[in-house]
Specification:
It comes from Puniceicoccus vermicola. By secondary structure, this protein is of the alpha/beta class. The protein has helices spanning 13-25, 33-47, 71-81, 99-106, 125-137, 157-166, 227-237, 260-271, 273-290, 326-335, 362-370, 382-402; strands at residues 64-68, 89-93, 110-114, 142-148, 170-174, 182-183, 195-196, 203-207, 220-224, 297-299, 306-307, 313-317, 341-342, 358-359, 371-374. It binds pyridoxal-5'-phosphate.
């Protein structure tokens, strides 16, 4: 039996054809027509109101996409564009992947972590308000916020964005996991922030890592809102080379541009975006339906802030209702050739960030202790899905009869 992976790349003939087209063109370089086309197609996609993909749609002229070597590079550039300097404090979601915090360290700045809201698993706006007030009162106000859209669901920007604006800090939306997600303010249908994820902050970023819903094998995108930021991002991403015939450098830059072959794969994936999402949605719904007889499972609250992209099907095991722990379930799945993963370990529990300040922390700890991500790849077949369902239900059943 083949091993079932958590979220493997789902690439096929369309991506292969695009890759060969790019290869045959001779543009095997970090410049080329595929990069330009991937950026403009992403702008067109983001210019629409939904997660549909219209390659010929008209682009908004206040959106700029810069294709980069990774989502982490995009976060780093967003912080530099926000003029973050050594010693600055930057607020960061506690419940996230380490890249969100590491980018702050690249700038010599200090991440300060904020707990999650139980109803979305994303950053808690009340915690943000408290941190902004407290740090200002202490005379060392935060300079920016990196807010993660966890597992493909947007944070509550209807509350978060006004708080950032009121305190004059840059809002960087870490939508690494949320390509294709659509934000909807739960209390306002007219909120101008409603629309594709990536646009709710001053800057947005996507990741196209191998495990993401849309993959290029490795890559990222920075979304900015004006031409001068986009020009500066490109300049910094190409070693800050001055526009002169010879190599002239007046400040430190980075080698952060995406390659032309990589961008071609991205174009193929972007054209399949609605299908990639609907396949993951079907998996999530199938898990929920088949495992409905097990009230000891609670599911990620997808739908709390609009249409998620269903990147990963995540569950919580209620410790008051079952003796099955996430670790026990993970091992049972692994024994049957199925990969699953604990939820992100909160930043304040990481040895790397143990000394950093945290506002709250009990919600993210609780989610981490009780959660598990099940296989969710868009290429998962119904048979594979059933194998996962069987192991989960058998494991829960076995421990029920024990009890
Ligand atoms: C929330 C979050 N932020 C940032 C990143 C970094 O993206 P990349 O791996 O493309 O650098 C990832 C994923 O890897 C992520 O999940």
């Amino acid at each position: 039996m083949d091993r079932i992976y958590l979220s493997p790349p789902d690439v096929g003939p369309r991506e292969r054809e695009a890759l060969l087209r790019a290869f045959d063109s001779g543009w095997v370089a970090p410049v080329g027509p595929e990069i330009d086309a991937f950026e403009s197609e992403m702008v067109r996609y983001l210019s629409g109101a939904s997660r549909e993909y219209h390659p010929d749609g008209s682009p908004r002229d206040d959106l700029f996409c810069t294709a980069l070597s990774s989502g982490t590079a995009a976060l780093h550039l967003a912080l530099l564009l926000s003029r973050i300097e050594p010693g600055d404090r930057v607020l960061v979601s506690d419940f996230t992947f380490v890249a969100s915090a590491n980018a702050v360290r690249y700038c010599g700045a200090e991440p300060v972590f904020l707990d999650s809201d139980r109803s979305t698993w994303n950053l808690d706006p009340d915690c943000l308000a408290e941190a902004l007030e407290t740090l200002s009162r202490e005379g060392a106000p935060a300079r920016a916020l990196i807010c993660t859209d966890l597992y493909g669901q947007c944070a509550d920007y209807g509350r978060i964005a006004p708080l950032c604006r009121a305190h004059g800090i840059s809002l960087i939306q870490d939508a690494a996991e949320a390509v294709g997600t659509v934000y909807q303010n739960p209390t306002s249908h007219d909120d101008p922030l409603n629309g594709p994820a990536g646009l709710q902050g001053d800057y947005g970023i996507f990741s196209f890592n191998g495990n993401k819903l849309l993959t290029t094998g490795g890559g990222g995108m920075l979304i900015s809102k004006n031409q001068s930021d986009a020009d500066r991002a490109r300049f910094l991403a190409t070693q800050a080379k001055e526009p002169l015939p010879h190599y002239q450098h007046e400040e430190v830059g980075f080698n952060y541009r995406m390659g032309n072959l990589t961008a071609a794969i991205g174009r193929g994936q972007l054209s399949r975006l609605p299908d990639l999402i609907s396949s993951r949605q079907q998996t999530f719904v199938a898990y929920q339906e088949a495992l409905a007889p097990y009230p000891e499972i609670r599911w990620i609250p997808y739908g709390a802030t609009g249409q998620p992209n269903y990147w990963l099907s995540c569950l919580l095991l209620d410790p008051s209702a079952t003796a099955v722990t996430p670790d026990l379930l993970r091992k049972a799945l692994d024994a049957q050739g199925i990969e699953s993963r604990p939820l992100w370990k909160p930043m304040h529990l990481q040895p790397l960030y143990r000394e950093n300040r945290i506002f709250g922390g009990s919600v993210s700890e609780d989610l981490y202790s009780h959660g598990l991500c099940l296989p969710s790849g868009s290429g998962l077949t119904p048979d594979e899905r059933n194998r996962v369902i069987q192991v989960v239900s058998q494991t829960l059943k076995a421990h029920r009869s024990e009890g």
